[in-house]
Structure formats: structure tokens, C-alpha cells
Write a structure and sequence with these properties.
Probable D-serine dehydratase, Rossmann fold, globular, 7-stranded mixed beta sheet, lyase, 2 domains, binds pyridoxal-5'-phosphate, 21 helices, alpha/beta, about 45% helix
Length: about 450
């Protein structure tokens, strides 16, 4: 059991978190990467990220053939990086804040196939599982053209196997669509927060959707138990999967190329500051890890979680990891940010990120819709409410005392910040149906 009062006494930021205020927690265990290098190489070596990148390249010909929308990227699932200067000005005007540097949007909200950041980790893990099975059965070799996986014979082979996952929605969509495309049977165990349109979309792909009244941890536990009973079933475990993490980590190399193509240099004088909406921690964890390996001390990664559901923050701050639950701090875990509604965090990510993440901003649900409208009106871009959490970062960085002190402590002077690139990582949106956008745009909370 966590001693909440002692935790709050030791760190006043946790008092604000427990009162569900919008705030920032700065990671007291953040270290220069030189001091984490040995451990990182041991736990998730750079070679494992190379291997994940190579695997995605092997599957590109299959993906391109099966999902023609990926034709422009040659079968790679990658999203645009865009300047959003009008949003930057709109945020400054609306919230009387200063946002230095160049504000950009990494649009994983518009990733092909799954329409969310889950297209990275979720799809990667399904591909890896398919490759492992097919190679072991002598039906595929690593040097083959993987386009041949798009055949009746291979679909019949994969049809013997089941893939299962617990999901608040988007992970189920990425796993469900790719598993079904390969031929697997798929079961997605959905938590109570999952939106109806996400369940409908999955069923339209032939996915079996099981619904539970409990929260996300319950859906994961049910899925895990169900899968363990079936030797032909594989469970994608969002609370501890290293393969998911690797799929996400590849994002960093892709981002570097996009920055290079624009002539954007990242160094001590021109740092990168990244804000990632966070649920159980897998997606932002893998991306942060990849970014820190590449850009070292010149990238500063902040997570963002709902004020009622900051589970990764609490898992790291209390060092109770997956044992932390937002309800221990008197928070409900309920949030309109369905993709971030995980009351307990990933065991793997809260440990791996312990010295790498700079901090964690919290965001009130009402602001998710305010940011959603502001991005729509200023830039004509639409991203789902969970995704909009990212904007709490650039808004808060120089407004909240905690992050201001972080900047001062890490040589992020006014001049350096003016030369920085700040990236709001948009994590979902493309598959939202038109009538749901109307609802989102009209939602005004207290
Ligand atoms: C899943 C999700 C996240 C966060 O990913 P985790 O791995 O749960 O931390 C963020 N935004 C959206 C839209 C998501 O679906």
C-alpha cells in the first residue's frame, strides 16, 4: 500500500496532482544520458531498435499491397510533421502564455491503417508474431519478398492462430486490423471507456469484441487469462510488452529523417522539446526511449496525462510502478480522454523511463476540447480529445513554476528556447466518424 500522505509531504507537486489540479511533476531522478547508457544498452539495446526497423522494412511490400493507402510511403507507416504557427499564436493569445521556438505537430493522429500512434507498436508486434510463426513453420524466410504473405495459403496458415489484446480502443484497432489482414482470428477485450464507434469499426473488420464493465486493467487481465487457456493464442500485453515498445521506438529515427529533410539541426543550442499524451505508458515510453537514444541530452521529453488519471506519473513518482493506482490518490480514473484512461501504469515503462523522462504535465478534460476547437479553427486540423493533451505541454512549459525551474536547471535559457523546436505529438484522430467530430467540437465542460 502506498503511503500517500508521506509521498505528498515529500513532493508538493503530488499534492496538486491529488487535488486534480493542472500541474507539472518534474522527475527528480532525471539523469544525463551518459549515466543511463550502460543500463539502456543492457535492457533495450540499440541493436534491438535496428532489428525492429529492419523488420518493418521487410514487411513493407506486404503492407503496401494490402493497404494501398501506404503506397506514397512505400509500405512504411509514417506520419507527417507539420508546423503549426497559427495554433502557437492562438494558444498564446487564448491562455496568455509564451510559447518560444517553433511549434510543430507530429501527426500520428493520421497514421495509415489504424489512425493512431498504436499503428506503430501494435502493428509491429502483430507483424513480429506472424513472422516468428511463419519462419518456424518453414513457410517464410527473412530474405523472401513478404508480399507473398498476401495469399490464401498464408491466410489459412495464420487462421489456425488467435491474437488477443486488452484495449481502451485504439490498440484494439491497430492489432485488430493488421491481425485480420494477415488471416489471424482476433479477440479484443474492451474496457468500459471504449467508444462505441471504435467497437463498431472493429466488428466491421471481423474482429470479436468482448466488453467489460471494469476499467482498462480489468480488460487486460481478462484478455490475458482468456489467452493463456488456448495454446494457439497470443496475447499482446500492453502492460509489459517489449515488442510494442520497440515498434514505438522506431519513431525516433523516422522523426530524425523528417527534421534532417527540413534542415532542422538538433543540438545544445537548438534543443527538441516533445510532449506525449500518455495512457498506460507504452507508446510515449517507446518514443521517448528512441528519442533519448538518438538526440541524447538535446531532447527533453514530457508526458501528459489527464488530471483524473495520471497513472504513469504516480507510478514513477512513488516508485511503486505498476502497483500505483490513481484511486489511491483519491482520483477517479475517469476521463473523456478514452485513450489515456489507464488507472495503473505499465510495469516496464515506468521502470525504463525512470531516468529518461523530464516530467509529466496534467491536463483537465475541459481543456482537451478547448484545444481541439482551437486547432480546428486555427490550422484546420482535427485530432481526437486524448491527442489534444499534448498542448498542455507548450502552454505550461513557461507558465508553471516547476517546468520553468526545469528550464533554468537545464540551460534552456530564453535564447536557447527561442531556437528550440517544440513538438506536440498528436496520437489519434483520423478514423473518428464525421458525426462524432460534431459532438467533440460542440462539447464544452466546466
Ligand atoms: C493509446 C493512446 C495514447 C497513449 O498510449 P499508451 O501506450 O497507452 O500510453 C495516447 N493517445 C491516444 C489517442 C491513444 O490511443
Amino acid at each position: 500500500m502506498i503511503d500517500v500522505q508521506a509521498a505528498i509531504a515529500a513532493n508538493p507537486a503530488l499534492g496538486r496532482v491529488a487535488r486534480a489540479e493542472e500541474t507539472v511533476w518534474i522527475n527528480p531522478l532525471y539523469l544525463p544520458v551518459e549515466m543511463t547508457d550502460g543500463l539502456c544498452q543492457l535492457v533495450v539495446p540499440d541493436a534491438a531498435i535496428d532489428d525492429a526497423e529492419a523488420r518493418l522494412a521487410r514487411f513493407a511490400s506486404f503492407i503496401r499491397r494490402r493497404f494501398p493507402e501506404t503506397e506514397p510511403t512505400g509500405g512504411l507507416i509514417e506520419s507527417p510533421l507539420e508546423d503549426i504557427p497559427r495554433m502557437q499564436q492562438a494558444l498564446e493569445r487564448e491562455y496568455h502564455c509564451t510559447i518560444p521556438g517553433r511549434l510543430m505537430l507530429k501527426m500520428d493522429s493520421h497514421l495509415a491503417i489504424a489512425g493512431s500512434v498504436k499503428a506503430r507498436g501494435g502493428i509491429y508486434e502483430v507483424l513480429k508474431h506472424a513472422e516468428d510463426l511463419a519462419v518456424a513453420a518453414g513457410k517464410l524466410s527473412l530474405t523472401d519478398d513478404y508480399a507473398r504473405l498476401d495469399s490464401e495459403e498464408m491466410r489459412a496458415f495464420f487462421r489456425q492462430y488467435t491474437v488477443q489484446v486488452g484495449s481502451t480502443g485504439n490498440l484494439g484497432i491497430s492489432i485488430g486490423i493488421m491481425s485480420a489482414a494477415l488471416g489471424f482470428r482476433v479477440k479484443v477485450h474492451m474496457s468500459a471507456e471504449a467508444k462505441q464507434w471504435k467497437k463498431d469499426l472493429l466488428r466491421s473488420h471481423g474482429v470479436e469484441v468482448l466488453e467489460y464493465s471494469g476499467d482498462y486493467s480489468k480488460a487486460v487481465a481478462e484478455g490475458r487469462a482468456n489467452s493463456e487457456q488456448d495454446p494457439m493464442s497470443y496475447f499482446v500485453d500492453d502492460e509489459k510488452s517489449v515488442d510494442l515498445f520497440l515498434g514505438y521506438a522506431v519513431a525516433a529515427r523516422r522523426l530524425k529523417k523528417q527534421l534532417d529533410d527540413r534542415g532542422i539541426v538538433v543540438d545544445a543550442e537548438h534543443p527538441l522539446i516533445v510532449y506525449l499524451p500518455t495512457g498506460v505508458g507504452g507508446a510515449p515510453g517507446g518514443i521517448t526511449y528512441g528519442l533519448k537514444r538518438l538526440f541524447k541530452n538535446n531532447v527533453h521529453c514530457f508526458l501528459v496525462e489527464p488530471t483524473q488519471c495520471p497513472s504513469v506519473l504516480l507510478g514513477m513518482a512513488t516508485r511503486q510502478y505498476e502497483k500505483a493506482n490513481v484511486r489511491d490518490f483519491g482520483l477517479s480514473g475517469k476521463t473523456h480522454a478514452d485513450g489515456l484512461a489507464c488507472a495503473s501504469p505499465s510495469s516496464f515503462v515506468t521502470r525504463v523511463l525512470g531516468n529518461l523522462v523530464s516530467g509529466d504535465f496534467t491536463v483537465a478534460d475541459a481543456n482537451l476540447y478547448n484545444y481541439l476547437r482551437l486547432l480546428d479553427s486555427s490550422e484546420g486540423k482535427r485530432i481526437e480529445p486524448s491527442s489534444c493533451a499534448a498542448f498542455a505541454g507548450p502552454r505550461g512549459l513557461l507558465t508553471l513554476p516547476g517546468s520553468r525551474d526545469y528550464c533554468a536547471a537545464h540551460d534552456l535559457t530564453e535564447q536557447v528556447l527561442n531556437n528550440s523546436v517544440q513538438i506536440a505529438w498528436a496520437t489519434g484522430g483520423r478514423l473518428v466518424p464525421a458525426e462524432i467530430w460534431d459532438q467533440y467540437l460542440a462539447t464544452v465542460l466546466d
